[in-house]
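User: I'm putting together notes for a lab meeting next week and I want to include a structural view of one of the chains we've been expressing. I don't have a solved structure, so I'd like a prediction I can at least talk through. The sequence is below, exactly as it appears in our construct file.
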Amino acid sequence: MKAESHKGVICTPDARATEAGMEVLKAGGTAIDAATAAGAVLSVVCPHMTGLGGDALWLLSDGRQVDTLLGLGQAGRRLPDAGAIAMRGPASAATTAGALRGWSMAHEWSVHRWGSALTWPDLLEPAIALARDGYGVSASQVFWQDQRRDLIRDLPDLTALCCGADGELLSEGTNVTRPELATTLEHLARVGLTDFYEGELATALAEGFARLGNGLTRDDLVATQSWHSEPLSIRYRQGTLFNFPPPSQGLYTLSALNALNHVDMAALENGGADYFHYLVEAIKAQLKERNRKLCDPAGGTLDTWRLLSRERAAANYAAIDPEVAVPWQEQGRPADTVWLAASDANGRTACLMQSLFHDFGSGCMVGDTGILWLNRAAGFNPAPAHANAWAPGKRPAHTMNPSAYLADDGRQFYFGTQGGDGQPQTQMVLATQLVDYRQSIDRALKAPRFLQGRSFFGSSENLKLERNIPPAVGEALVQKGHDIEWIPELSPFTGLAGAIAVHLDGCREAMHDPRGEGTALGQ
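Assistant: Thanks for the context. Below is the predicted structure for the 523-residue chain, given as structure tokens.
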């Protein structure tokens, strides 16, 4: 359901996180504070999606200026004991986790720029209580357990996390506790998050790394940094669309929509064959470019502003044949994450994305900390000469890329989604629905979606269409050369998105995706 308020709003993919964030807003916390508390809860109750052992991006706005904070880990100084990066297991856990560096930077922003008086015990207590006292397993976790049965059986840490004493996968509503994670969160609340990288907890993590053989050391944790960056942006219709700079794929989301500046989208039938054809063809070209070039900007040569220029947008548009689909031969990037956002009574908005990369990350707990580690190292390209190849201290290419749109007339939209390759595709749907067709956020989130490629499920790379798209539209797309496959209406495979809208009268609306269990609340 959509929430409305002239004060604060919040939406997240889990009701417990939404409620924790709302309590923070009611206590006078900022939007950053609310998102932090909610993100901490998700790190407990959504272990298949996010956790302390992952990465995080923050998009912050006061309604006039947008800023981005990046909390991303980097490769260690040596490869795992296996000598190569794997997709799962210890050899995939070969990058550090940047999420808590990002949380720390966001908290400093909240205190020093937005005037927060809340402390780490205030923000982490809801997550601590759930980990210590127990919570019911979500339908989302049960869904992904079923998808990854073989993986869970192969990795002992996932077996312990996802199975009961009888060895069977946990069922929805089963009460579970995570005492080791509760102890870790209590420690961080008491001494501060820097301890994760430089203190007692860093030492415990390093000992766990040594047992895993993932190649990471305490020095690698110390070297992990977060940073503030100017967002990338384009003019889109009568407003400015913002996204994240590399190593995020936000560049390519913007580039695809920049090409659509040359299409009168509002003149096309909303949800018609031409609508989907232009979106699909625009993002296909950009995903292909991303697969070739996206990398850590510290070691690459991406000229982001040239790639977002008017000249480049015109060339990208000219390359789209309105009647013929380009064959799709790329391999999709599986990935998973959570998107959540809050707006506070002072008109400030914070969007947070957290990720373990693939669902359940590496599948490895680190020592006795209760922390499930990410498998972001699998995001490196295995070809040694590739721009995104592994190198010591290098950050892999990232799929996380939430958006903000500030209209010239003062309206604001904030949106994002999970889903690897599906992230830019779903964001294109949301951007066009909200801006071109001026849909409400609930109608935009319910609008039919497409997914080119496999993202995080299946093995087919074809164009997937939700069943609420009319059959005649599918037939017309086939005539244009698209290889289509039908998936259920409101399918979670197109990603769990969310959106916040801030209207001219000061009313805020928030909603999470009807494809999942997400909720929204207003003060």
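A couple of points you could mention at the meeting. The first helix runs from residue 15 to 26. Residues 175 and 355 are 24 Å apart (CA to CA).

User: Perfect, that's what I needed.
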